[in-house]
Amino acid sequence: MIKKKVSTVSEALLGVDNGMTFMLGGFGLCGIPENTISELVKLGVKDLTCISNNAGVDDFGLGLLLQNHQINKMISSYVGENDEFERQMLSGELDVELIPQGTLAERCRAAQVGLPAIYTPAGFGTEVAEGKETREFDGKMYVLEHAFKADFAFVKAWKGDEAGNLIFKGTARNFNPVMCGAAKITVAEVEELLPVGSLDPNQIHIPGIFVQRIFKGEKFEKRIEQRTVRKRD
Questions:
Q1: In a domain, 134, yes or no
Q2: I want to staple 217 with a disulfide (CB 3.0 to 4.6 A). Which of 86, 156, 187, 189 is the partner?
Q3: Which family does this protein fall into (predicted)?
Q4: Per-residue DSSP letters for the chain?
Q5: Domain assignment of residue 201, given as a range
Q6: pTM attached to this predicted model
Q7: CATH number reported for the structural domain that contains residue 13 in this entry
């Protein structure tokens, strides 16, 4: 059986280079590949295209890459709480493609299963559809959206085994599963890395065939983007 375990995040990111396109899982700050992003900052790779639901916050997640001006283009659904993302977008420093959230997920999924494109009703009649092929099905108009093409997909899982099988926890099961296998190389960082056969097959969310490299992450901060609690009496 092929063992996909690598010892360090630096080993997991071998082959990463300037000008590449990356998919990064997570939603807000939930389920983001923290160790991978920190290593990308250290590597200093530039002119990146990043496909992710959003770009974290100013001092965490993809916001760290934005601060270093390592990202040339963001393909995402939400500017979110990141002031630097907003500033770079409005100033023209950053090329931003904002697309509907469901379309973002389906373009990832299309790449995952080998479909070249999908038809979706989202965005028809708006700026989203400008310059794109449209077609009518059963009296309803749809927009043709192409599957993403990425060099690496970086995902974060709760548990994984050395064959690359993954289990996600709670809300972290968001964009991570659809990005697995949607790029040339999928790298998974996990909180707990187990020997092959340790995971209950009925609980596995993503089979190892979609993962090329897996490593155990360290010191996950797991920040909360907006913490709202009731004041103590």
A1: no
A2: 189
A3: Belongs to the 3-oxoacid CoA-transferase subunit A family.
A4: ----B-SSHHHHTTT--TT-EEEE--BTTBT--HHHHHHHHHHT--SEEEE-S---BTTBTHHHHHHTT-EEEEEES--TT-HHHHHHHHHTSSEEEE--HHHHHHHHHHHHHT-SEEEESTTTTSGGGTTS-EEEETTEEEEEEEPP--SEEEEEEEEEETT--EE--GGGSSSHHHHTTSSSEEEEEEEEEE-TT-S-GGG-SB-GGG-SEEEE--------SS---PPP-
A5: 9-115+148-216
A6: 0.91
A7: 3.40.1080.10
